[in-house]
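Input record (one chain):
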Amino acid sequence: MKIVLVFCWVAVFSEICNGAALSLFSAYDSNMVVQLSKPWSLYGYGSPSASVSVTFFGQKFPAVVQADQTWSVYLPPTTNHQLTTQIVVESGAESLTLTNVCFGEVFVCSGQSNMGLTVEQSSNWTTEQTQANRPNLRLLQVETNAAYPNVSTPQRDFIASQPWAPSTAATAAQFSGVCYYFGVNLLEQLGGDVPVGLIQSAWGGTPIEVWMSPASLKACGESSLAGSPTPVPPRSALRMFDLPLGTRRAALDASVPGYLSSSLYYSMIYPLLVVPIQAVLWYQGESNSGNPTGYAACFPAMIEQWRADWSQASLTSADFPFVFAQLSAWPTGPASTLVSDTRYAQTAALKLPRVGMAVTVDVADIASPNSCIHPPNKQAVGLRLSLVIQTLLYNNTQVISSGPQLTAVNVDYWDQSWGNYHDGTGEFGLCSWHDTFAIYCGGMRLKFDQPLSLVVPPSGLLNFNNGFEVMLTNGLWQPASVTGLIDPFTLQLNVTGQGGEFAGLRYGWYDYPAMPLQNAQGLPVAPFNVSLMPPSAH
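The corresponding structure, as predicted from the sequence alone:
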């Protein structure tokens, strides 16, 4: 896909398209952060055939306004993050000056409502607003304009609801909480003197299809005609989780507007492709929780296409890090796996290089004032995303960026013979008596790659069974109890119930599960579902 900026959105930008005033695309403004150590282009508007001159660090760069009333200049990279400059743009008698322009690390934050939930709506806003003055943290917010969901062609520009500005209590209040706290943590991790630029481009309640180009939709089987917009049907049954709890059932299909496939890609992502960036942060999936199989195909396809498009348009690295927040917990019904299946579908993206995941299941808050689908603890989510970026982008081997991961399962199979205890069950296992005078014994020892901590989940969780279940060969799942730690890396499980061999093991698999395992840093073990059957049995 060749990225060519030739379109004009007359409905929104008529005053720009029809006028001759010298101006810049919305991605460029005073206080902006330019990606450090990368060449970049400055884009603007003017009168056709007019000459434009851009002064950058004392050097003049010429341009000519094209017939579509746009111009651009190619500017060299800046490698010193301590520099701040102004940029002067002149055309005939017209001129404009960008001030307080700095050079640092630029990130795009996208997704749906959990990315859009503001700093003011997040936990501890009263405290945070007294600390929000951070001159080296710069914020840019793309507007959620009512026209965007119906856009069917690529747009060269967007409307900024908040132009580039340093972080203050006023500018941070309505900015994405996840994105902001990511930036706060990264700024500190980078020593405080490397500017961090955050671009929020998110819309609550949106399915992934609206963020995907036609090419990526075609790649995952969601569209048969690349370039032809396909209506995304209203999904009130899914999007109602973005509404306050009391109004969910009142949400009808007719009251939730539909979107065109690719509409937000065209209107909220495409115009950003000219901006060199370091990475993308993504928090989305709730509105696709009815189709985990489709999400598992489309999510990686979207990532690959965004990477290709950004690389071609702005020389951003072709494999820039893409880090996503795994869906948090919210109850959708007794024993429901609607959300947990989508969490698993999200992990399909981890097969791609330089893709990382931050687990958020444990930050759920069933009493959240924004409905339980929107946990207010965005500080934890932002921190975890920053830790993953430290690993993927900066190759920081001193940072622990994820919780313990399962590396091995030792199984003590069920036995109905008198006194025939299998390895491990004599000391740690659990045997239960039955009317037939048979003894049913079974247990598992789980090995992890980090030392484990056992924590007591908060009260109010559904399906509390220590988070573990085993599946027998008859396909039935049953709870597994945690006996304790054999050593810091090894957990012992016991199981009672019907006879049969263990066929599978899962952890944290309900929509609102117990999550008692974490490491010393408080990072949780991610939900998992593993088969225990030999390959020949599949």
